[in-house]
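Sequence design from tokenized structure. All designs in this work follow the same two-part layout: the structure record, then the generated sequence. An example of the structure record is given first.
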């Protein structure tokens, strides 16, 4: 033991630190350097006053520069101990919440925004944790508002004489343009999430493009809620026009000639069989994903690689699908776009007939788009795609069906790879 611990403690508390020792050594070195320069000047033979003044100014300049460098060194030493700014959006709570939802632990936010103090606010933290579901939600809201509103305007103004042309505000192509532009702008709104806007497209990307499966239910719920809210906005905007067109308090579905339920969801032509109804939605959905996979394929040399053109290409694709497949069943091609508004219309007074109309047609725009989108993705990957896909694995992906142990192994490897890459 130390014989005099108090004295030792006193001496230790007044002993210079390493940084102070370095500071004294540098100061002594600076003094020696300055003294040596002055001595050299004194030993120089007497010359002109101008020469002596010039040399003295040089010494003062060098001394000042050395002092400035010494001061700068200590500023850097002091700044070294300053705490680095905290990345607010990287808190463990946010990362854990996002991971549980199947989202990337790191939110898609610009680097400079992640250090802003406002990101520490309560709502900012919620927004960061749910950024992609919010993007899907509002993207679908925009899509459904513009699409359903175009249907409402064409239907409710039918035969209006004071309209340009004397026969209402718009026609079938107005509806196709409305849905096409709605999809395009919805894609821009939902850009941070991948902009799927459609549970069937999300499902196809999970199956063929390695989108994490845990992300599917999160996106599907956001898309369904977005279509539900969007259709409610359209109803609120056109409620007086619906009353004027159909009669106050009257709400009907096809085949009633005055039915306004078609504003919100799709119904088939009365002469179609169930097989024809299903096939119409199936083939339109298959074409939808076949073209989307082509537009998104970096190995497809016939496609412009700049993703900024993708929303515009989708406008033309939706317009074309409406022009070719809209008459039979209304080209839902999106389970959320049909189911959400159907639920909203049921609540708003259309009742159970929303589900029984068309011989209980309601299940076809839910099931057929899933089947069609998967088939379209399968066609593209079998015949064109050369990237990572279950089709480009042993047995063309059938090994995943007949060998559950292999499927489980691949899923675990994919999950671990996703963690390493920060995807999940």
């Amino acid at each position: 033991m130390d014989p005099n611990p108090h004295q030792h403690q006193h001496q230790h508390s007044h002993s210079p630190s390493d940084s102070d020792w370095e500071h004294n050594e540098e100061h002594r070195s600076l003094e020696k350097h300055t003294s040596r320069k002055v001595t050299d000047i004194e030993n120089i033979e007497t010359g002109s006053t101008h020469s002596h003044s010039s040399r003295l100014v040089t010494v003062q300049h060098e001394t000042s520069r050395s002092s400035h460098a010494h001061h700068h060194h200590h500023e850097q030493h002091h700044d070294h101990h300053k705490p680095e700014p905290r990345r607010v959006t990287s808190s463990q709570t946010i990362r854990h919440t996002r991971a549980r939802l199947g989202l990337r632990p790191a939110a898609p936010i610009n680097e400079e925004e992640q250090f802003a103090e406002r990101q520490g606010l309560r709502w900012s933290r919620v927004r960061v944790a749910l950024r992609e579901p919010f993007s899907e939600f509002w993207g679908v809201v925009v899509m459904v508002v513009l699409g359903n509103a175009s249907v409402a305007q064409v239907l409710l103004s039918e035969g209006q004489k004071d309209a340009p042309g004397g026969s209402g505000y718009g026609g079938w192509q107005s509806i196709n343009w409305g849905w096409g532009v709605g999809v395009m702008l919805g894609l821009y709104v939902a850009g941070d999430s991948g902009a799927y806007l459609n549970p069937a497209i999300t499902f196809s990307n999970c199956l063929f493009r390695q989108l994490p499966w845990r992300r599917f239910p999160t996106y599907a719920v956001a898309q369904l809620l977005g279509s539900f809210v969007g259709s409610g906005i359209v109803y609120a905007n056109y409620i007086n026009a619906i009353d004027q067109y159909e009669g106050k308090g009257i709400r009907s579905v096809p085949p009633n000639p005055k039915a306004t339920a078609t504003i919100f969801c799709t119904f088939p032509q009365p002469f179609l069989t169930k097989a024809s109804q299903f096939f119409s939605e199936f083939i339109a959905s298959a074409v939808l994903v076949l073209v989307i996979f082509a537009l998104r394929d970096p190995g497809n040399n016939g496609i412009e690689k700049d993703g900024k053109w993708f929303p515009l290409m989708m406008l033309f694709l939706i317009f074309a699908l409406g022009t070719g497949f809209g008459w039979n069943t209304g080209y839902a091609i999106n389970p959320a776009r049909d189911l959400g508004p159907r639920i909203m219309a049921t609540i708003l007074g259309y009742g159970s007939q929303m589900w029984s109309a068309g011989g209980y047609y309601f299940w076809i725009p839910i099931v057929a788009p899933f089947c069609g989108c998967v088939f379209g993705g399968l066609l593209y990957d079998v015949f064109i795609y050369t990237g990572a896909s279950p089709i480009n694995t042993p047995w063309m992906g059938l090994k995943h069906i007949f060998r559950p142990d292999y499927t489980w192994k691949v899923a675990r490897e994919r999950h671990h790879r996703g963690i390493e890459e920060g995807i999940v």
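The CA atoms of residues 332 and 355 lie 15 Å apart. We note this feature because it recurs in several other targets discussed in the main text.
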